[in-house]
Input
Amino acid sequence: MVYEIVIGLEVHVQLLTRSKMFCRCSTDYASTPPNSHVCPVCLAMPGVLPVINEKAIEYTVMTALALNCTIPEYTKFDRKNYFYPDLMKGYQISQYDAPIGKRGWLTIDSNGSKKRVNITRVHLEEDTAKLLHRGDYSLIDVNRSGVPLMEVVSEPEISSPEEARDYLIRLHNILRYLGVSTANMEEGSFRCDANISIRPVASKEFLPKAEVKNMNSFKAIYQALKYEAGRQGKVLEEGGELVQETRGWIDETGTTVTQRTKEYAEDYRYFPEPDLPPLVLDRSWIEEIRASLPELPEARRDRFMTQYGLSLYDANILTGSRAMADYFEDCVKLAGPGKAKIVSNWLLGDFSRLLNATNTGIESARISPKHLADMLVLVDNGVMSGPTAKAVLEEMFQTGKGAGDIIREKKLSQISDASEIKEVVKQVMTDNAGAVADYASGKQQALMFLVGQVMKATRGRANPGVVRDIIMQELGGK
Ligand SMILES: [Zn+2]
Output
């Protein structure tokens, strides 16, 4: 039997608001002591009332619009009832039948062609507290309780772990472009639960699905889905039966393990939140938000290809983050439109290598777009050679100094002065009489050897073209 994979993804995103969803506590708790960012509202003391965070609504609307969703005029919050120690109130304020965004989509590249993955809904809720399990007891940190949490739910239209990864990278990228979340996976600002099932090819029926949790990197999600598809296939092949369940990904073993069989939606006994008014989203406000959306990654990538003549591959990487794309455009603006390809080469080559080696984001790099543009001018004007520029870039990266200063300080400027080079050439020819004789007897490669020796003697600073010309002269113009 040949099976096909059916995947639907639920992504939880912490929004980058200053205060929590329903109280005034700061959301900036990442490096603070446990239970330091709490108040009677997020601790769920009796008698308190929630107040809606307007910025969180705005960020959710921005995301929904960027994902091509319809924004209904009417939206409301509901209580989702379940009992778990990380839930302070015994219920979570969420959205059930009237989410902020409905029926959107995003496109991914699937085997070289574009595929649209439909998005069911984008809704807003509150994050829970954090439990820290310590052997036979657990500790609770309420700092996270009440942080605005946006959920983006896709239709079960994703057909492979590769597509799932592509979808998540796209979504992640869009969120970062919008600036609505840090979307930092390690810190839990971007968390994915994946629903996966398999079925015989061409069957329209869904078999029981597994909801896989606990993955905190794109790689882990990919591996977990790959493993899970294989496991389900094996169960069916061996004549077993699949059950609907929640499974946890274990990074160390590369496997998923069953956690609990899935409760059904009715178990949550949703009902409208009586402490909050329904919201009517003003159409002119929605249009204002739509007009203020930044250019999104896909559109920007396509523009980079047409405007700067870049390849799809290069444009994809340059627009992989908004900071990188902004840096590129700032630099091209300074260096001139004809320099786009060269700027791209430096950014994707040596500059990226330095960023990766030091685990630095381009936004905190010490080389500014102006520094890079200035350096390119110096290369263009022949003040320094290509190999020298690589070394200078590294120095710029470490010190934050401009290329001009570094060249002056380290006396790295290219030597094009013929008389200066002639001195070195003469010395090299005296020291390498064998190579000179070889050249005289017709061995062309001896010339390259001599050029190499002069470059070495000048620590790469001599202009190689000038060196070659002078050696030819000295060898008798052959
Ligand atoms: Zn609070």
Summary: The chain has a mean pLDDT of 91.
